[in-house]
Amino acid sequence: xxxxxxxxRSGVLNLTVQRPPVNALNMETITELLTALKDAAxxxxxxCILLTGSQGVFSAGHDIHxxxxxxxxxxxxxxHLLESYNPLxxxxxxxxxxxxxxxxxxAAGAGLGIxxxxxxxxxxxxxxxxxxxxxxxxxxxxxxxLFLPVLAGLGRATELAFSNATIPASQALEWGLINxxxxxxxxxxxxxTLAGMLANGPVEAFGLAKxxxxxxxxxxxxxxxxxxxxxxxxxxxxxEHAEGVRAFIEKRFPxxxxxxxx
Length: 262
Prior knowledge:
Blueprint: E1 4-9, E2 12-17, H1 27-42, E3 48-53, H2 64-70, H3 77-83, H4 85-94, E4 99-103, E5 107-108, H5 110-117, E6 120-124, E7 128-130, H6 144-152, H7 154-163, E8 166-168, H8 169-175, E9 180-182, H9 187-199, H10 203-217, H11 221-236, H12 239-250
Parallel strand pairs: 2-3, 3-4, 4-6, 5-7, 6-9
Antiparallel strand pairs: 1-2, 7-8
Helix pairs in contact: 1-4, 2-12, 3-11, 4-5, 5-6, 6-7
């Protein structure tokens, strides 16, 4: 069963992640989303893209159960990123059509990275954001190491990555992480209106503007993604990551400081 619902209407392609209950991402979902975006890039009928999640959740990030299954096996987090999130993030930035993240609830981990990679972000007033990686002993990936400091500033990005704090939508708007904040019940109509306006605009010029912004602000995106993959490979072999995953599965706070057990 597909995990990405796709609907094209009046030049606007709606892509919805459907992996309830929290739209956690796995390789199947990432592959489907990447394929949908590549197809959209080549389809002249697609003039704007809306990306969202089902059932009031944007995405909780990568499926922790896949990480748990990978522990103890010869599984490379670096290779995983090179085959999954890195090409997905690059595709979002390289498609020369507007891509809007419609954030209808929690966005965490790789889900946050995907949202930040989009050109615009419109969020419901009950949405919230979490970097998430530190909670399971990992470094940020999915472009967060670049997008978060660019949008929120280095100091805020560092605190959010270290503290793993939840950022309410109102704070995200103030810090520039989102472009628009609307009541939850108006999110669908407001995002459709915005997408319709862009779809009826000079899409080729939008694409050139996006190319210019990529060169001016994100010229090192590919290198940043590759470096994230290197760092994640290191983190994946740590005792902190093993403890973080165990704690998540056991629904408890992780103990990253062994001296506290004494």
